[in-house]
Amino acid sequence: MSSFQDTDTICWEVRNSGIHNNGLFATSDILQGTRIIEYLGERIPKEISRARALEWDKQARKEGAGLVYIFEINDEWDLDGNVDYNPAKYSNHHCEPNCEAINYDEHIWLVAACDIKKGNELTFDYGYAIDSFLDHPCRCGAPSCPGYIVRKDQRWRVRRLANKKKKV
Asked: S-S: 122 plus which of 24, 70, 100, 117, CB 3.0-4.6 Å?
């Protein structure tokens, strides 16, 4: 997506989600291509980012919670969105998302991937790699959901593994 539509009004709110605890929801109709909310946070070097992600992953396994809120900004820096002033961190994963997370001039934006109706939850594909898929169960409920948070191009592998397990 190369062009964006900006909105001067807040078109989202945080409330309870059926996917996972809290979520972001549209408070008005949103047109495809609209920059909805900027993903804010602390700009950190890659080595600190890796250390934090490993620590949060370890903690998440103990508590059964998702705690990694890190986006890549460029080859040297990441953005840690686990801060109080970042409501965008409440946007949940969905296998059939209505938003995309786009790096636009080293700012991460949630952008409407389609027209979104008022009241719909604002979601995007977290894009996790398959190597640790068992650690990330998915609760999105989409027909195409393989049951785990895995980026779209690797979901067929998760389905194949699940089918092999069923046959055993």
From this structure: 24
Q: How many CB atoms lie within 10 A of CB 45?
A: 10
Helix (H, G, I), strand (E, B) or coil at 168: coil
CATH of domain 5-127: 2.170.270.10
| DSSP H or E segment with residue 58 | helix 46-63
Q: What is the DSSP letter of 160?
A: H
pTM given for the model: 0.85
DSSP 106: T
Closest to 94 measured CA to CA, from 25, 145, 23: 145
Within the chain, residue ranges assigned H as helices are 46-63, 155-167
pLDDT digits (tens, 9 = 90+) for 32-60: 999 999 999 999 999 999 898 888 777 76
Q: What's the token pair of residue 55?
A: 């620590």
